[in-house]
Specification:
Blueprint (H helix, E strand, L loop, with lengths): L2 H13 L4 E2 L3 H9 L4 E7 L3 H15 L9 E6 L4 H14 L9 E6 L2 E6 L1 H4 L4 H15 L1
Parallel strand pairs: 1-3, 2-3
Antiparallel strand pairs: 2-4, 4-5
């Protein structure tokens, strides 16, 4: 399978369950400028931990009723949509300048504030079910 086909599948992993794909800086800015409600953003990646744990864990978490409280879910693809990823990371740095780039990773925003970051080092070596449990706990705590 060619890399472009693999990337299409990895994109579909999230878009088929409702994630809005942010492909450009304008997409990111439009998504992030609406400061009301709760947003959840996934920085997607082609790495093994994204395929084996991150995307499956997020998909499992979406099945929990807690995710119904989230107004908007979106994804940017690190290493593929460079401009969109950089623009999103700029939004994160406006909220908290001490957060280093990480992919894959998850970000929870409430109104105009970044309230939680789930970086790559939380994902590596974890099972999808553990990531689901973590995300549900985080949502219960912050929503």
């Amino acid at each position: 399978m060619e890399m472009t086909e693999i990337v299409k599948e990895y994109r579909r992993d999230l878009t088929e369950v409702g994630f809005k794909e942010l492909l450009s800086s304008a997409d990111v800015d439009n998504f992030m400028q609406d400061q009301s409600g709760v947003k959840f953003v996934v920085i997607n990646s082609v790495c093994g931990c994204a395929a084996g744990s991150a995307r499956p864990g997020v998909k499992l978490a979406l099945e929990d009723k807690t995710f119904l409280k989230i107004k908007s879910i979106a994804t940017v693809f690190a290493g593929q949509d460079m401009e969109a990823t950089e623009t999103f990371r700029n939004w994160v740095h406006v909220s908290n300048a001490h957060i280093p780039p990480s992919s894959p990773s998850f970000y929870l925003f409430k109104d105009d504030s970044l309230v939680y970051v789930y970086p790559r080092h939380f994902i590596e070596g974890r099972r999808a079910s553990e990531i689901r449990d973590d995300l549900v706990e985080v949502l219960d705590e912050h929503l």
